[in-house]
Amino acid sequence: QSVLTQPPSASGTPGQRVTISCSGSSSNIGSNYVYWYQQLPGTAPKLLIYRNNQRPSGVPDRFSGSKSGTSASLAISGLRSEDEADYYCAAWDDSLSGFVVFGGGTKLTVL
Amino acid sequence: QVQLQESGPGLVKPSQTLSLTCTVSGGSISSGGYYWSWIRQHPGKGLEWIGYIYYSGSTYYNPSLKSRVTISVDTSKNQFSLKLSSVTAADTAVYYCARDDGGNSRFDPWGQGTLVTVSS
Q1: Rg of chain A on CA atoms, in Å
Q2: Which residue of A has its CA nearest to B37?
Q3: How does the average pLDDT of chain A come out, rounded?
Q4: What's residue B102's pLDDT?
Q5: Of the candidates B3, B76, B4, the residue with the CA atom closest to the CA atom of residue B38
Q6: Does residue A61 surpass a pLDDT of 90?
Q7: Do B108 and A100 touch (CB under 8 A)?
Q8: For A79-93, what is each residue's pLDDT tens digit?
Q9: Interface subset of B 73-112, CB within 8 angstroms of A
Q10: Which one-letter DSSP state was computed for residue A25?
Q11: How far is CA A26 from CA A52, A70, A88, B59, B99, in A?
Q12: B23 in Cβ contact with B4 (< 8 Å)
């Protein structure tokens, strides 16, 4: 059971816009930045979004992030076949002595 | 650019200690502001943060693993290491090392990962 809650799956057709949600609490998303990672099959995760809505260089502007209260979302517009991957959200959690928490991951299928 | 590479045994017996090393190239592990991290992924499952270390030696661990984990750093070799004691089959996973910029879960870059199987 992950601390951050994501839907296990999402899907869309090429060109569509899809969103993936990430729900947390006041001790993590509610008080800290959210990060998103993309994991293509058989590879290590890659940073996709940092500090809620910032894109590292090289990440297409089709990917965007947002945060409101204790929830965050990743949006992918102009869906492409190469976007088929697992997506994870992450945040620092202030409870106990502090630690990093991940969402359970969302498998995105491009139909 | 900075690159990370995990190394260590791919097979560990139950009750023994899992030991992995991450070698950092293209940059100094002593660069301030970065936390050197271990993350694992059970087969077919999601990501689990194990802990990280600052170059000064300060460590932060996942509370669920804290009693069994030790992360250390060797700045002279530009390496950091993971030791996980008393392993069971539940510790079978792909283990990744990664750099955390600021210690807030901004992991970039990542190593390629190494599969560690716990089995007799």
Answers
A1: 13
A2: A100
A3: 96
A4: 87
A5: B4
A6: yes
A7: no
A8: 999 999 999 999 999
A9: 96, 100, 103-108, 110-112
A10: -
A11: 15, 6, 19, 24, 26
A12: yes
